[in-house]
Amino acid sequence: MAQPCPAARTGLDVRVLEPAEAGREVAGEIAALVRASSRAGRSCVLGFATGRTPLGVYSELARIQREERLAFDHVTAVNLDELLGLAPLDPRSFRAWMRARLFDALGIPPERALIPPCDLDQCDAESWCSSFEQRLARLGGIDLQLLGLGRNGHIGFNEPGSGRQTRTRRVELAAGTRADATAEWGGTEGVPTHAITLGVATILEARALRCLAFGERKRAIVRRVLEGPVGPDVPGTFLREHPDAKLYLDPAAF
Ligand code: F6R
Question: Which residue has a Cα nearest atom 5 of ligand 1?
Fold first, then answer.
């Protein structure tokens, strides 16, 4: 049961729920959007994130697809980011991660999943990013973007210092972001140094933003997102400028 949140002095709608309940609520909203667009004969563009936080949303979406036969055949998936410097079929790429955790279960084929290739060099990355922005505009923009929150306040890989006007681009990962990923990469040296991320402006253009942050380790940055000055030092604060943004926290992160 959602608790009304006394900290909702910001433009963000804050909801404090256990992670499983938050996962069900967000997945239910996504499913409703998919059904409504299907009934209206419209396509639907959903923005996804990798990481630990959205796993509950993904398992619930897979359950809804399986048990309620929800069709995703008019859905285009967009991913927030992808690591660079990997071989095309590297199983640690976000593309492979999304396929294994969500896209195969929902029946979303590779041609309807807009994720940057993980083997682009700097020059190809720049041209991929500008054609991606054009393609997104032709699709009519993102209907709902799911987000996690980095411990340094990043959204996507818009690390501290990323401004309100940034668009999809190649970025260098912050040291803390790489340190947080060492377990999967067998030490800091193995962690990719660069990535492609949707920009802050690109994210804020989505019609709805649903950000999730769970656990004690997110509590300090959540305070800054809710109460600190809005600006590039903590890119997550830009969520407060969006007309339809919800932040799902569990009691430990709140
Ligand atoms: C992942 C992404 C990141 C994560 C964030 C939180 O695609 O864009 O911003 O959402 O780092 O990661 P977790 O959920 O693992 O705590």
Answer: 150
